[in-house]
Design a protein that fits this description.
Helix content of chain B: under 10%
Radius of gyration of chain B: 13 Å
Order of helices and strands of chain B: EEEEEEEEEEE
Oligomer: heterodimer
Helix content of chain A: under 10%
Order of helices and strands of chain A: EEEEEEEEEEE
Strand content of chain B: over 45%
Largest interface: A-B, 23 and 23 residues
Number of strands of chain B: 11
Radius of gyration of chain A: 13 Å
Strand content of chain A: over 45%
Distance between the termini of chain A: 41 Å
Number of helices of chain B: 0
Largest sheet of chain B: 7 strands, mixed
Number of helices of chain A: 0
Distance between the termini of chain B: 34 Å
Amino acid sequence: KQEVTQIPAALSVPEGENLVLNCSFTDSAIYNLQWFRQDPGKGLTSLLLIQSSQREQTSGRLNASLDKSSGRSTLYIAASQPGDSATYLCAVKGADGLTFGKGTHLIIQP
Amino acid sequence: DTAVSQTPKYLVTQMGNDKSIKCEQNLGHDTMYWYKQDSKKFLKIMFSYNNKELIINETVPNRFSPKSPDKAHLNLHINSLELGDSAVYFCASSRTEGSYGYTFGSGTRLTVV
């Protein structure tokens, strides 16, 4: 059964810093990996989707990498802003559907 | 145009009642899902459904049942609501093909009193 772990569980950094969120998964037989953002009391917004054959995806200040063989992904946020404060969720899609990590709660201090 | 829409956004009801949450997607996806987000914010799959197969997470009580009138809709019915059912319920859709990602609705916050 797939298990997804996100480290750290919470992170607080000053505005302007670059930061990395980590995600690991136990079963490397995945179709793709998705990073989502969830604001308090809101739904899930898809940030980046990386196919199993890809190594990374970029969108604006966000860059996600995938090392399928080692079961790891990172989400890199450049030049962080207070508006980036949210919970970031990593999810992997396998034969049994989408499995989520517990998220990283990110606070960007103005 | 909202890709995956859920109604209602908020639902407050008494223990023992029966309630439904509706979900519709206009993305042409062939598979729809219900997820539950508990008080610790962890998202767990409840059901996945396409026109061929319903897959039920074994931990879901049989008081919960999905109903799909067509490919674009997957409603969630809950009978005899209990306090522990209070959570946020998310609908999502995707394609069966592995390369597709998931699109989520904005969630329904259910509070059982």
